[in-house]
Write a structure and sequence with these properties.
By secondary structure, the chain is α+β, with helices and mostly antiparallel strands. The chain has helices at 8-25, 39-49, 72-84, 104-108, 158-167, 189-197, 225-251, 253-259; strands at residues 3-6, 58-61, 112-114, 133-139, 143-151, 204-206, 209-211, 265-272, 277-281, 287-290, 300-301. It contains 8 helices and 11 strands.
């Protein structure tokens, strides 16, 4: 009987630790306030959640959207990058280099902000120069929704979400709490800021309707709740995948031992975090792939298409 060793969880950890090492070398901060090394994984996921992945998207704008002349070149550049699926990293805040930063507006409202500079940033060459006004927007896998170009610090302004409710109501539909009555008085912008600073999620009230956070909310450590749930889903998938891969080798053991009679032990690892996922064993170099989109995970002969698990968000 072949002794099979599979530890996809540790493979995943090793992959993240390697990514963190490269990001540190590129100037990213990973404070790691705990001695537990797995905290770096939470920091990494929190960072990745704040970076749009690279995929072509459509663009929609509010009826009142207006771009001042001084930002037209920067906006045109951004629109080309969105439509072609290029990296948008250079338009992000300088806070993107802080892996543990809690982006209250994005985590709560689901609204991101992008800078419209044209020249290179003097201190952060990976970014464009800062602009006094910024683009407030929402993005999904399919599209970017431009809300307005306006001053900084509208981080707690519900008027931004009212724009979404009025012109793109489908973006909020899944977050509405049905049959819920608004409370009086509604939290002020300052009160919402205080709650965010304390890492407390609060319902959002817009024109008589009540919503949970469209951005998924914030966890008690200040990190994105979406990134936390993403990590849990990945761990669940890896546990299931370990079982399926072991079953695959058990079912095919007779064939394998006939072909490789000296096989006594197999160590199975990830070849890459990809779609489909590539897995290999160090003894036979036998490769299998898993289609992430299938409801039932099953091994098949490998297809070499490699799409990054984190959708290639970083441009370096």
């Amino acid at each position: 009987m072949i002794d099979i060793k599979v530890d996809f969880k540790q493979d995943y950890y090793n992959y993240i630790f390697h990514e963190v090492k490269l990001l540190r070398e590129a100037g990213f901060s990973f404070p790691k306030i705990r001695n537990d090394n797995t905290y770096e994984i939470a920091e990494y996921n929190n960072l990745i959640e704040r970076i749009p992945f690279q995929i072509p998207r459509k663009i929609f704008k509010t009826k009142s959207f207006h771009c001042p002349d001084k930002y037209k070149e920067g906006l045109e550049n951004l629109q080309k990058e969105i439509l072609s699926g290029e990296s948008l990293f250079k338009h992000l805040s300088t806070k993107i280099f802080q892996s543990d930063y809690s982006d209250g507006m994005q985590f709560d409202f689901g609204i991101a902000h992008l800078h419209l500079g044209v020249k290179q940033h003097p201190r952060f060459p990976q970014l464009v120069e800062r602009t006094s006004d910024i683009l407030y927007c929402i993005y999904t896998d399919e599209a970017f929704y431009f809300l307005t170009i306006d001053k900084h610090n509208r981080w707690n302004d519900l008027k931004l979400l009212e724009m979404v409710q009025n012109e793109f109501p489908e973006l909020l539909k899944m977050y509405e709490i049905k049959d819920s009555q608004p409370t009086q008085p509604e939290p002020t912008e300052q009160q919402r800021k205080i709650l965010r600073d304390k890492h407390i999620n609060a319902c959002i009230q817009l024109n008589g309707k009540v919503y949970i956070s469209p951005g998924g909310g914030v966890a008690l450590n200040g990190f994105s709740s979406k990134s936390t749930f993403r990590f849990i889903r990945i761990m669940s998938l890896l546990m299931k995948l370990e079982y399926e891969v072991k079953q695959f080798y058990i079912i095919n053991e007779l064939t394998l031992t006939k072909k490789y009679p000296d096989v006594k032990k197999l160590e199975i690892h990830f070849a890459t975090f990809s779609k489909p996922l590539s897995v290999f064993d160090s003894k036979l170099n036998y490769k299998i792939s898993i289609d992430w989109n299938e409801k039932t995970i099953y091994p098949i002969d490998i297809g070499m298409e490699r799409i990054h698990l984190y959708e290639n968000r970083l441009p370096f």
